[in-house]
Design a protein that fits this description.
Elements: H1 12-15, H2 30-43, H3 45-62, H4 64-87, H5 89-97, H6 99-117, H7 120-140, H8 145-155, H9 162-169, H10 177-189
Length: 190
């Protein structure tokens, strides 16, 4: 098993190049769009973490108590959902069959609990805004060969990163192992 390592911070010109490296995803092919998002999440994870921290800090300085309350609720719901997903067979099979719906249900449960404790709008700005920015970038940013190769190594288990562990816990995999093996074999032939 590979040890967990943080992906390198990608240079600005790679993370946010000109408009030629961005394109609208094909909404009719959800599997391809999902692969693009997962691939970009894995490749640019350190850049996304930096963006999230900056936005989180800006909003957190404006309302620290609301941010702390909201963050505590979201972390609790996420950890609870991961534990239940791993320890309850019904939930585990539901998560495997409907990964996107599972993530949406976790987010809905977080929202409902936050509305009970307050801090909904603060957390929406501090956590959901960076998530929205990250999702928009991951959806629109086209992948390059280096991006694809790094992600194949992560998926094959040769390398483990925090984002890879998080996506695995949420039931989001980029591609099956057979496709990864096929890709690597084709690259070796070239």
């Amino acid at each position: 098993m590979a040890r967990v390592e943080l992906a390198p911070l990608r240079p600005w010109h790679d993370f946010f190049p000109g408009s030629e490296r961005f394109a609208k995803p094909d909404l009719r092919d959800l599997a391809k769009w999902n692969n693009r998002v997962v691939s970009n999440l894995l490749y640019y994870q350190t850049n996304y973490l930096a963006v999230a921290v900056v936005v989180f800090l800006v909003v957190g300085f404006m309302n620290p108590l609301g941010m702390f309350t909201g963050a505590a609720v979201v972390v609790s719901v996420f950890l609870g959902s991961v534990w239940v997903g791993d320890n309850k067979a019904v939930v585990k099979s539901f998560k495997k069959e409907n990964p996107t719906l599972f993530v949406c249900l976790v987010m809905l449960a977080s929202y409902l609990l936050m509305s009970l404790f307050g801090g909904v709008m603060v957390l929406l700005m501090g956590i959901k805004l960076p998530l929205l920015l990250i999702f928009a970038h991951a959806s629109l940013r086209l992948r390059n060969m280096k991006n694809k190769l790094e992600n194949k190594m992560e998926s094959a288990g040769l390398k483990k990163t925090p984002m890879g562990i998080l996506l695995e816990a949420l039931g989001q995999q980029e591609e099956s192992l057979s496709k990864i093996q096929e890709f690597l074999e084709n690259k070796l032939k070239e």
